[in-house]
């Protein structure tokens, strides 16, 4: 059993969280993370958004989203504080880069309808050249993934922003192309069909976090899956 004592030393709590993120059975690990004091587990999870192991980073994204949604179920304001902290980390004035922050925002909104209702427009504004556009490619990829994650549970608000996603299908960075293709598939954006067809043979290989699994795929495979999801032939 995982200790749930709110007085658990932070160093010990951080070690417990990291051990859980490393566990082979991630579903059971998530349950144990949720058994920890929610507000106190937030800081360790934030720190693991910067971990050197991609799987640990992505699992931290999922776990932070899950914990924050659980916070929102009980009381919205603590969850809003977490969300605002993620937003701030994407701001140049924060002094950091904000790795994993957009992804965690997407996970939170996918798991809690009220958080989605309040913040999805802010998330999508990060893709808008007339809005809060992010210049850093790594952060752009995070926002694209977050948009796709939200679309998995509620495609309507993301569909309105589909024209903001489509240009990334032709980005020089293959990770941006693949993530945009996955997001187009999640929202079932038929307006992206021609662009998806144009990259259906793209051989560049990338890693994507899909259904809580780190998956290796080519850009072309991702584009073809998106088209298949829409029932459109390549």
Give a description of the structure:
With about 230 residues, this protein is mainly α. It folds into two domains: about 1-160, no CATH class; about 160-234, Leucine-rich Repeat Variant, CATH 1.25.10. It has 13 helices and two strands, in the order ααααααααααααββα. Helix 2 packs across helix 4 (about 55-75) and helix 3 runs antiparallel to helix 4 (about 55-75). The longest helix is centred in the N-terminal third of the chain and has 21 residues, at about 55-75.
Give a quick set of tags describing it.
Leucine-rich Repeat Variant; 2 domains; mainly alpha; 2 strands; two-stranded antiparallel sheet
Short description:
The protein is mainly alpha-helical and 234 residues long. It contains 13 helices and 2 strands; from the N terminus they run H-H-H-H-H-H-H-H-H-H-H-H-E-E-H.
Continuous helix count: 13
Strand content: 5-15%
Task: Compute the separation of the termini in Å.
Answer: 50 Å
By helix and strand content, what is the structural category? mainly alpha
